[in-house]
Amino acid sequence: MHAFYNFPLFSALIAMILAQVIKVPLNLFINRSWNPALAFSTGGMPSSHSAAVASLAASIGILDGYRSSLFAIAAVVCAITMYDAAGVRRHAGIHASVLNQITYNLSEITKGETTAVHLKELLGHRPMEVLAGLILGALTSYGLYYLG
């Protein structure tokens, strides 16, 4: 069984799951709203995408060294993923919100002849959510490495 243990993969998956699970009690604390569906959705605090890639990069750095080619690849993938989460995906969510409002208003004006569509709005992350995912991911890797 030990032959199948891949620390970077295991660490990244644990970090991603932790980030998703943390969203529920954090939302309860901040917004006073219990919403277990957040554990299975995109967006929100912290970014599970950022946590996963940061954990992957950190664990590769721990095992292979921070000067290794593998770490360089993981760090670049991490940076691209976090940039995308806070940039492109976040703006897509903002666009979805505007389009939802437009189609709702159009449906009201046409008295239901035009159907209002509802696009998912919570797609990306604010920079603080990405940073929290980065920190959670790195801490997960170091914690698993030194505790395991």
Query: How far do the termini sit from each other?
Result: 16 Å
Class per helix and strand makeup: mainly alpha
Which ranges are low-confidence, i.e. pLDDT below 50, for 5 or more consecutive residues? none
Q: Describe the global form.
A: elongated
What does the main sheet amount to? none
Estimated radius of gyration: 19 Å
Listing every helix as H and every strand as E from the N terminus to the C terminus, the arrangement reads HHHHH
Kindly state the number of beta strands: 0
Q: In DSSP terms, counting alpha (H) and pi (I) runs of 4 or more, how many helices?
A: 5
Helix content range: 55-70%
Strand residue content:
under 5%
Structural write-up:
The protein is built from five helices and no strands. Helix 1 packs across helix 5, helix 2 runs antiparallel to helix 3 (69-86) and helix 3 (69-86) runs parallel beside helix 4. The protein has helices at residues 7-31, 48-64, 69-86, 88-109, 127-147. With 148 residues, it is an all-alpha fold. The longest helix is centred in the N-terminal third of the chain and has 25 residues, at 7-31. It is elongated and about 65 Å long.
